[in-house]
Amino acid sequence: MRMPKVMRLALTLLVAAGMSVTGSLAAAQTAKSSKSPALKRGTKTRHGKSSRRSIRRVRGQKAPTSDRISEIQSALGKDGSFSGTPNGKWDAVTVDAMKKFQESHGLNPSGKLDAKTLQKLGLGSQTAGLAPPMPPVSSSSLTTSPSTTVPRRR
Known about the structure:
By secondary structure, this protein is mostly helical. The chain has a domain at 66-121: Muramoyl-pentapeptide Carboxypeptidase, domain 1, CATH 1.10.101. The chain is built from 5 helices and no strands. It has helices at 2-35, 66-79, 92-104, 115-121, 139-142. The mean pLDDT is 77.
């Protein structure tokens, strides 16, 4: 007879705890929804602006500007691979000159710009294409740890 009273007490406590948790979750949801209304994708805010940006980022590399192409053509001309005056247009003559330059310098003769070709032309970065990119240094690694600081004199 004693066992059923203990079981009844345990069940009552479990139900009461469950109701308490459910009540606090409901109160939190109400407080959360009253502070900031939930916006769905593409819906407009009070000011008429869309909450989602419609501009998408273009993947891949951008085409070189005409000034950059003229610079590349000049460098190809100094090497003797490009004959003519730099016009700033990436045309068939420029592609052929690039293939000729790449082949004479032991590079893949694709006719396309890459980091190693720009380095050989003297127009690229000193580190591009040589190794994988280094991760950025985090600001937390720059701060000193408390154990290395010297205590101040009073």
